[in-house]
Amino acid sequence: MIAANAPRPSFFSFSALFLSGRTLLRLEIAYALFGLGSIGYMTFVVAYLRDNDASPAAIGVFWVALGVSIWLGGKLWANSISKSRSGRLASLMYLMMAVASSIVLTSTTATALLASGAAFGSVFVAVVAATTHLIRLHVAQEFWTVTLAGFTVWFGVGLTVGSAATGIISDSYGLSAGILVSVITLAAAAVVAALQSAPTELET
Fold first, then answer.
1. What is the CA radius of gyration of the chain?
2. Contact 171, 51 (CB under 8 A)
3. Residues 26 and 192 sit within 8 Å (Cβ to Cβ)
4. What number of CA atoms fall less than 13 Å from residue 102's CA on the CB side?
5. Is residue 11 situated within a structural domain?
6. Structure confidence by residue, pLDDT tens digits, 72-122
7. Do 10 and 158 touch, CB atoms closer than 8 A?
8. Could you give the CA distance from residue 104 to residue 114 in angstroms, rounded to a whole number?
9. Would 54 be classed as within a structural domain?
10. Among 76, 84, 91, 135, which is most buried by a count of CB atoms within 10 Å?
11. CATH of the domain at 103
């Protein structure tokens, strides 16, 4: 019943919104790059670690650190997210993921894997919350659902392209090259997200 009574903006009104000065194009591109970069790391990091003689214990430490930090990440970032108005916080999160991904390229010790997993996991879900918060600031309430859907589609495109591209690169040039592509892509997401300005006024 609620869905039936919900506002249903037309295609033209939705297009007009995104052609206005309050565009979220930069944030949306960064979100697609997030999907593209994160999937390569998440998919191939364990294969890379095994290929580089990381011990089972170190890999176990990595998974525990990743899982616990994902669980805690939303709580750790909640206050900062609530105060965010531009893409700077999302940019910081993408940069943290890029740095976290790069750590495994320099060392596969338990300490390094703990740092990589914890840093990556702490922002992996939090950046989704940060993006949702920015959408609510930039977009009128009746457009929230369709805008979130659009972001989700582009994130999915990034996941699909990223997994295929990273797989091809890893097969051709080695697993380290695939991880490096993830690092570069996430760094690019950080740069693009930083260009997203704060809204000129809050939508109600």
1. 18
2. no
3. yes
4. 11
5. no
6. 998 999 999 999 999 999 999 999 999 999 999 999 999 999 999 999 999
7. no
8. 10
9. yes
10. 91
11. 1.20.1250.20
